[in-house]
Amino acid sequence: MLRPSWLAAVSLLGLFVAPHAAGAAEGEPTREQLDFFERKIRPVLVERCYECHSAKAKELQGKLLLDTREGVQKGGTIGPAVVPGQPDKSLLIEAIGYKNEDLKMPPEKPLSAEQVKDFLLNGNVRNSVNYPDVVMARETAHRLVVANANVPNMLGLISETLGNAKLNIHDMVNRSRGDYAYTVVDLDSPVPEDVRQKIAGINGVLTARII
């Protein structure tokens, strides 16, 4: 059965692929829509979908790319992944709903609403297709989570960027599995957006999210 929290998140992909929105140039989403996509939608896609449906996938499944707007719009071998404003006609929602025996995503088991909620609110990862389990109890109100390629010195670069911004790390946990790694950092003060952007710009970082 499709869980409400995950349905809501994926339905909002319609904002990302919608043909036009008030206040934006024709064919482009608004800044607010892009910001919501980057903070709430893309991290879920990275953690749950990119292993099989991104340009970096070892074997692209169904010719479906979910790492670009164009890929979501175009869809795969059986059609567009999301139909803007029509979640009942969106194949991605049908797939994660496990209502079609021939179309299930992720293929191993359906997503848990509790796990997705904890991921969105706290950045904790459990039972991921791509990433190891990374769970850290929150001790401060300021958290940064980073998904990245499993390459040397990534923790050093993240820590250095935070240190240069005079941000004190309260606690940190990092785990890796195969080609991917995931880091959760609790800080004693808020992370400015420009610092998040610097971390997101580090070579090998897939997403950097402030929670």
Q: Could you characterize what this model shows?
A:
The chain is α+β, with helices and mostly antiparallel strands and 211 residues long. The chain has two domains: 4-96, no CATH class; 131-210, 2-Layer Sandwich (Alpha-Beta Plaits), CATH 3.30.70. The protein is 34% helix and 15% strand. The chain has helices spanning 4-11, 13-17, 31-48, 69-74, 91-96, 113-122, 154-164, 193-200; strands at 142-149, 169-177, 180-187, 205-210. It has a four-stranded antiparallel sheet, sandwiched between helices. It is elongated and about 50 Å long. Mean pLDDT is 76; it is low at 1-9 and 14-23.
Q: What Rg do the Cα atoms give?
A: 17 Å
Percent of residues in beta strands:
5-15%
Low-pLDDT regions: 1-9, 14-23
Please count the helical segments: 8
Our measurement of the CA-to-CA distance between the termini, rounded to an integer number of angstroms, reads: 28 Å
* Shape summary: elongated
Kindly state the number of beta strands. 4
Structural class: alpha+beta
